[in-house]
Amino acid sequence: AGWGVVDLMQEEDILWMADYNSDFNCKKYLQEFYSTTAGNEDEDVSLQFSLDCLHEFYMKYHNEWEKSTATLLEFGGGPVICNLISAVAFVKEITFAAYTEDERREVQLWKDIVDGAHDWSPFFQYVVNKHEQAGEDAWKEREKLLRSRL
Question: Which residues, in sequence order, are bridge partners of residue 72?
Answer without folding.
Answer: 94
